[in-house]
Here is the input.
Amino acid sequence: MPSFVIAEKCDGCKGQDKTACMYICPHDLMKLDMESMKAWNQEPVQCWECYNCVKICPQQAIEVRCYADFAPLGASCIPMRGTDTIMWTVKFRDGMIKRFKFPIRTVEEGQLSITAGVQDVQVDISKIKEQGLYTQQATGETFQVPA
Amino acid sequence: MEAKVNNFEYVEKPEIVEIETDLLIIGGGMAGCGTAYEADKWATPQGMKVTMVDKAAIDRSGAVAMGLSAINTYVGENNPADFVKYVRQDLMGITREDLVYDLARWVDDSVHLFEDWGLPIWKKGDDNESLDGHAANKADKPSLRDGGKPVRSGKWQIMINGESYKVIVGEAAKLSLENNRKATGVDQNLFERVFIIKVLNDKNDPTKVAGAVGFSVREHKMYIFKCKTALLGGGGCVNFFRGRATAEGQGRAWFPVWNSGSNYAMGAEAGAELVLMENRFVPARFKDGYGPVGAWFLLFKAKATNSLGEDYCVTHADEARKLYGKYVDNIGTCMRNHMMIIDMKAGKGPIKIHTDVALQTLGETMSKKEMKHLEAEAWEDFLDMSISQAGVWAANNMAPEKVPSELMPSEPYMLGSHAGCAGLWVSGPGDFGPADYFWGYNRMTTVKGMFTAGDGCGASGHKFSSGSHAEGRVAGKSMVDYCIDNPTMPEFAETADELAAEVYLPMETWGKFSGYTTDPNINPEYIRPAMMQQRLQKVMDEYVGGVSTYYMTSKTMLEEGFFYMNMIKEDVEHMCAEDLHELLRVWENHHRIVAAEAHAQHIYFREETRYPGYYYRGDFLAIDDENWKCFTNSTYDKNTKEWKVFKRDYHQLIPE
Here is the structure.
């Protein structure tokens, strides 16, 4: 399932115009209850368990309870997403714990440059009908055609 | 039922925002992000405006929203011509070889950019061991661009640490858009949380694109974009068949649950020709969680068998050859399903993938530390891109190194980017290939100025994430080319008020009728979109070859299905929406229904079983190369709501 929001931990992303989970959910599922000022998953049957709300929540107030129509209770996968790695704690139904850490990026968020790797040149617009993308223009790199 | 009208008596008229742009990118997934990057390079120096609109947030939108553990298209040391052979083989002999070859010659550049932008890519270490993206950097391994050696899980696939894949590619696209915004002096050129419901045609030339209309799911605002050229960059089609899950697990679709067939429906309604819409993908995946099998089969060398320990691809090969001849050799994805399904029907399941044996075998020559690394690699495969599967394992106390897991062929999906080829019919590159594959602008549909890439572009599967980005770039450059040649801004046939009445009709319906009954879910005047989706899924499943018939259908079954489908089409206008979120679901299901009908019409037209294991025509069980080694294309008339399906020639460009 569906992501769920722990009532005690959610602060409705106080002071911001929208909650982090509302901002990120690709399927428009997370909603802020304006009375309680807490978020909730308004359509769990449409939840892909992509964990983006879980990863982004500044209060760590969101977790996932695996789809109840086929998964037994008692397990969890909890991520802790840092700046360049993500740590996972996988808890089995029988209590076994596995921990993993994986890289997520090599360039810090916000530091990315769209001119890295390829020299920044002005394209020659008169060549737009020729084959080749920007990179081929910038580098003079050749490309293949079928024999 | 009486026709529904919207006089804005029960829903407030929205604020109407009108935007003019040269290029419009509909959908900010991998394809759209590629278009933004490439278009900026060519359009910005010309002072052309580039605008992107997405129903979600670019950081995590599209099929790569969760992340990926591999890039499935990286040509590297291989040859584009061999890539064409591989794709042709897997898609049962019929593919647009010009599009596939063209993709293969550009795709690596997108992968190189991803690495420049910070995507960690696994590399081979000095002793041929696998290094993750961070370890490779620490060991000073060169980037792929500079000759670094990737860890291949297959001939075309490379392993990555892809949790933040889309965040990275999205960040680059946003920078490109920002570059264009500053240079052209507009206030805003990225519209998130705006769902485009239809493409608008030019008043003076209905075969030409003029813009698109949509609405914000956050504010009561309708958006009308006027443009010279547009990219249909949405996803494939998911949840148009009844799924195997019975309740909340329906969200665990293999492909993203938010892919509602918008490319196909909006393209068809705008008058574009579709191709191979009968094609579908039925991935055989880890049961219920739909975890990926690619790395398990290719990287960890796991084997799958029936309950008797037999390899169904061996035991049924001779039998399959009787119907499918040469297509059984060099076995493709659908044929594998076909053999698996034979055993499932015979009660020889469960079909299991022996992850335990694979890991133990690999572990025989490994130290404890290396073994631990291997186990982490296996889990990362799920945690990067299909976290639910890790959840299913944990919930069932199943450790992959100890026990095998069950495999299951899923409900059907339509897509153009993965191992499928449904989509729009587009122009090829033009520097090679036959005349009937080229009409001026690479990746332009048959609607002038309307382009597509990724899932939207048909007859050219196996692009995956990298290929979708590269194809978006190809389209982006062509769109600039088109804009230079066609500098006049089109005009709309519809007024803003007419469009608003159409877009918000479901909310008017809700306001007018929902108070009539004590439970607004049950009301004789309307149907809620969630229920409409269930209704569509049931018809598709029972008559168009879903899981409940083991993917079997026929002329007579389809005709019965059309009877029910026609009434679904009539009831589309009776969907209601309580709020903007439900309005999103209404229009997604509008798209889903058009896409689903295209799928059924194409299956009806093609009198053979081209993709055994994905679907079967019981009345034409064999492959019939003599009559059907061709493209099946269609057009839709949005006024009469009728389809026309016809053949187009397949040209083989790359010899066997």
User: Anything to note?
Assistant: Chain A touches chain B through 79 residues (CB under 8 Å). The radius of gyration of chain A is 22 Å. The CA atoms of residues 64 and 86 of chain A lie 17 Å apart. The mean pLDDT of chain A is 94.
